[in-house]
Amino acid sequence: EAGVAQSPRYKIIEKRQSVAFWCNPISGHATLYWYQQILGQGPKLLIQFQNNGVVDDSQLPKDRFSAERLKGVDSTLKIQPAKLEDSAVYLCASSLDLMFSYEQYFGPGTRLTVT
Amino acid sequence: DAKTTQPPSMDCAEGRAANLPCNHSTISGNEYVYWYRQIHSQGPQYIIHGLKNNETNEMASLIITEDRKSSTLILPHATLRDTAVYYCIVRVAGNAGGTSYGKLTFGQGTILTVHP
Question: Which residues on chain A are in Cβ contact (under 8 Å) with B104?
């Protein structure tokens, strides 16, 4: 089966610019997650969706970050405007369902560099 | 979710067993122990999980102490490709409800280096 797809793989922008990341989860997976991983740290959950509804966005900096999953499949994560501290790898993951202890499958990530 | 404590780094010789410890002394009865690993420049990869019984799959074995306050991930015959950061995570599962449901909280993990 195809894995979680993410694009772009790399992005370099200047501070105050905007950027968007795209994720296509594994077919049939109801739950989708976005994580931020700063160099040397473990991934930190930003937001999780169940189908097209938000389950948890408590760690999403909502003044600059937004995410959507309009049709319950693909998702986009946007940063506007970007800050230097947003430099990180943004990981998308999906799982069959939120209700049970299903494993999460991760994509390769998008490495963002803000200069 | 309960917090975990892992050693920051470990070494292992190729072909030998790698035993990665994890302390989770505040784990609750409805929390599972999960292990993920992250190879350089890749996303994390699920390895194994368990509640109270020992578990084994094609990748590894998970040994959970009887009091559930600690666990050990065992890679029986480590190879150079097993060099990675290994994360031990406790996670609420089942129909517990709440926003922590299904959430993975990653710590710093253990950097395992397998050498020839």
Answer: 33, 43, 45, 104
Nearest CA-CA distance, residue B71 and chain A, Å: 18
Q: Which residues of A touch B (CB under 8 A)?
A: 4, 31, 33, 41-45, 48, 55-56, 58, 91, 93, 95, 98-101, 103-109
**Mean pLDDT of all residues in B60-82:** 97
pLDDT tens-digit series, residues A49-74:
988 899 889 999 999 999 999 888 99
Report long-range pairs for A102-105 (Cβ below 8 Å, ≥24 apart). A102/A31, A103/B46, A103/B49, A104/A33, A104/B44, A104/B46, A104/B104, A105/A3, A105/A4, A105/A25, A105/A26, A105/A29, A105/B46
